[in-house]
């Protein structure tokens, strides 16, 4: 059992590393690769299989986390349609919500929203100080998603 717990911790640390990479690429290029969201989703599958091997109920391991991630994706898709969120951001937060599950999805969204507001404020202040742009700056929302996702990862590690 200790070996499986160590693998689970490794998975959560890998998710954290992928989220950090997403934040860095979003800061540099204002784009989040689909591959990062796919890697997080793949790690969710591996993590779910480990929990199932340990005897966890499939609904709590697969069904409810997938439904909560689908709800997060649906809300994100609405924000994308309204031009308030990028497509890469929507996919990244939905993939992260797989690990959050129903218990941590609402706090995840709350932390991402608060961090996103702070990052948006800093982005707009930076653009104002440079005063080179006439268009509103693009907010690197992947940084906020990373902040919320890191919180989820360390909450999940703490419960192992």
Tally of discrete structural domains: 1
Order of secondary-structure elements? HHHHH
Low-confidence stretches: none
* Distance linking N and C termini: 11 Å
Q: What integer value in Å does the Rg equal?
A: 16 Å
> Could you describe the largest sheet, including whether it forms a barrel?
none
Shape: elongated
Write the layout of secondary structure elements.
Layout (H helix, E strand, L loop, with lengths): L1 H28 L4 H20 L4 H24 L5 H44 L10 H18 L2
Protein described:
The structure is a single chain. The chain is mainly α and 160 residues long. It has one domain (2-158). The chain has 5 helices and no strands. The termini are close together.
């Amino acid at each position: 059992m200790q070996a499986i717990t160590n693998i689970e911790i490794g998975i959560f640390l890998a998710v954290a590393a992928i989220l950090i990479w997403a934040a860095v690429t979003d800061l540099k290029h204002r784009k989040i690769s689909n591959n990062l969201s796919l890697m997080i989703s793949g790690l969710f599958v591996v993590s779910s299989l480990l929990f199932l091997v340990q005897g966890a109920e499939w609904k709590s391991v697969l069904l409810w986390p997938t439904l909560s991630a689908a709800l997060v994706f649906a809300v994100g898709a609405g924000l994308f349609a309204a031009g308030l969120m990028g497509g890469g951001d929507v996919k990244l937060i939905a993939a992260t919500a797989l690990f959050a599950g129903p218990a941590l999805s609402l706090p995840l969204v709350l932390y991402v929203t608060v961090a996103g507001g702070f990052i948006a404020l800093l982005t707009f202040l930076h653009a104002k100080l440079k005063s080179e742009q006439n268009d509103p700056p693009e907010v690197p929302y992947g940084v906020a998603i990373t902040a919320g996702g890191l919180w989820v990862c360390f909450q999940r590690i703490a419960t192992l």
